[in-house]
From TrEMBL:
Subcellular localization, as worded in the UniProt entry: Membrane; Secreted, Cell wall
A GO cellular-component term linked to this record: membrane
Annotated organism of origin: Populus tomentosa (Chinese white poplar)
Protein name: Leucine-rich repeat-containing N-terminal plant-type domain-containing protein
Segments forming domain Leucine-rich repeat-containing N-terminal plant-type: 27-66
Signal peptide positions on this chain: 1-24
Protein family: Belongs to the polygalacturonase-inhibiting protein family.
Keywords: Cell wall, Glycoprotein, Leucine-rich repeat, Membrane, Repeat, Secreted, Signal
InterPro entries, A to Z: DNA_repair-toleration (IPR053211), Leu-rich_rpt (IPR001611), LRR_N_plant-typ (IPR013210)
Length: 368
C-alpha cells in the first residue's frame, strides 16, 4: 500500500468512525437505559433481548431517538400490544420491578410509556420532574405506589399524565395546576385522597379529566368551568360533597359529566339540563327536591341517570320536549304521579322507573 493510499485509508476510517459515533446514541444514554432495564424483570416475552450493542437508537425494542441530536427521546413499552412479539407468545405482558431513577439521566426524553405490565411497583421517581422536554407520562395498569411528585408542575411541556389503575396515594399536588399544556389527565382507580385544588381551572388546554375511583373529598371547584376545552369530566366513585356548581352547565364543550357514587347534595342546577352535556350521570348521591321542569330542544342526552337519590314530586312534563333521550334512569327515588306519555317514555323499560314512591302508567302499572 502506497503512502498516499495509506493516508487515504486512515482518513476514510476516521470519517467512518466519526460518522458512526454521531449516528449512535451517547454512551451516557445507553448506560441509563441499561440501568433502567436492570431494575425490571420481564420473564415471558424477551422484549429486552434486543437491548444489545453500542447503538441504543437502532433496533432497541421500544426505544427511539431524536433524529438530529441522537439522544433517546421515547421509551414506549406496552404490556398489551399488537406487536408480533405478543402475538407469537399468545399472551399479554407481565413485568415486575420498579422504574429506576436512572431514567432521569435521559435528558432529552420526551415520552415515557410503561403501561399495562401489571406487576411494576415502587414510586414514580421524583427526579422525573427535572426532564425539561417530557411531554407524556403513561404508566397505566401497574402497581405503582407512592405519591405524584410534588413539583410535577415543573414539566411545562406535559400534555399527557396517565397513571390510572395503580396504587398511587397522597393528594393531588398543588403544582399540577401549573401544567399549562396538559390535555389529558387520567388518575382513575388509585388511592388519591384530599380535595381537588381550588385553582383546578388553571389548566387551559385540558380536554379530559378522569379521576374516578379514588378517595377525593371536599367540593367541586367552581374554577373547573373556566377550562374552555374540557369535554370529559369524570369524578365518580369518590367522596365529594356539597352542591354542583351551576357554572358547569354553561361550559361550551363539556359533553360527559360523571359524578355518580359521591356524597353530593342539594338541588341539581337547571343549567345542566339545557347544556352541551349529552352524558350526565348523577346517580347514587343525596340530591333532593323536585326535578327541574326546564327541559327543551337543547336537551340531548344519550344517557341521563338520576337514580338512587332523594328526588320527589312528579316527572317533569318538559322531558317530552327534549330533542333526544336515549337511556334514562329515574329509579330508586321518591317520585310520584303519572309517567308522561310519548317520547322518550314510550321506549323506556319499567326498570327506569322502579322503586319510587308512587309512579304509575306505562311502562309501570295503570294509575288508579
Amino acid at each position: 500500500m502506497t503512502t498516499f493510499s495509506y493516508i487515504t485509508f486512515l482518513a476514510s476510517l476516521t470519517i467512518f468512525i466519526l460518522t458512526s459515533t454521531v449516528r449512535s446514541c451517547p454512551a451516557s444514554d445507553r448506560a441509563a437505559l441499561l440501568a433502567f432495564k436492570a431494575a425490571l424483570h420481564e420473564p415471558y416475552l424477551g422484549i429486552f433481548n434486543s437491548w444489545t450493542g453500542t447503538d441504543c437508537c437502532h433496533n432497541w425494542y421500544g426505544v427511539s431517538c431524536d433524529m438530529e441530536t441522537k439522544r433517546v427521546a421515547d421509551i414506549n413499552l406496552r404490556g398489551e400490544s399488537e406487536d408480533p412479539i405478543f402475538q407469537k407468545a399468545g399472551r399479554s405482558g407481565y413485568m415486575t420491578g420498579s422504574i429506576s431513577p436512572s431514567v432521569c439521566k435521559l435528558e432529552r426524553l420526551s415520552s415515557l410509556t410503561i403501561s399495562d405490565w401489571k406487576g411494576i411497583s415502587g414510586p414514580i421517581p421524583a427526579c422525573i420532574t427535572s426532564l425539561p422536554f417530557l411531554r407524556i407520562i403513561d404508566l397505566i395498569g401497574n402497581r405503582i405506589s407512592g405519591e405524584i411528585p410534588a413539583d410535577i408542575g415543573r414539566l411545562e411541556r406535559m400534555t399527557v399524565l396517565n397513571i390510572a389503575d395503580n396504587l398511587v396515594t397522597g393528594r393531588i399536588p398543588r403544582s399540577l395546576t401549573n401544567l399549562s399544556s396538559l390535555m389529558h389527565l387520567d388518575l382513575r382507580n388509585n388511592r388519591i385522597w384530599g380535595p381537588l385544588p381550588l385553582d383546578f381551572g388553571r389548566l387551559p388546554m385540558l380536554s379530559r379529566a378522569l379521576l374516578s375511583r379514588n378517595y377525593i373529598s371536599g367540593t367541586i371547584p367552581d374554577s373547573i368551568s373556566k377550562i374552555y376545552r374540557l369535554a370529559d369530566l369524570d369524578l365518580s366513585l369518590n367522596k365529594l360533597s356539597g352542591e354542583i356548581p351551576a357554572s358547569l352547565g354553561k361550559m361550551a364543550v363539556l359533553a360527559t359529566l360523571n359524578l355518580d357514587s359521591n356524597k353530593l347534595s342539594g338541588k341539581i342546577p337547571d343549567s345542566l339540563f339545557n347544556s352541551a352535556i349529552g352524558n350526565l350521570n348523577l346517580s347514587k348521591n343525596s340530591f333532593q327536591g323536585y326535578l327541574p321542569d326546564v327541559f327543551g330542544p337543547r336537551s340531548y342526552f344519550t344517557v341521563l341517570d338520576l337514580s338512587y337519590n332523594n328526588f320527589r314530586g312528579p316527572i317533569p312534563k318538559s322531558l317530552s320536549q327534549a330533542s333526544f333521550i336515549g337511556h334514562m334512569d329515574l329509579s330508586h327515588n321518591r317520585l310520584c304521579g303519572r309517567i308522561p306519555a310519548g317520547p322518550p317514555f314510550d321506549h323506556l323499560e319499567a326498570s327506569s322507573f322502579a322503586y319510587n314512591a308512587c309512579l304509575c302508567g306505562k311502562p309501570l302499572g295503570a294509575c288508579q
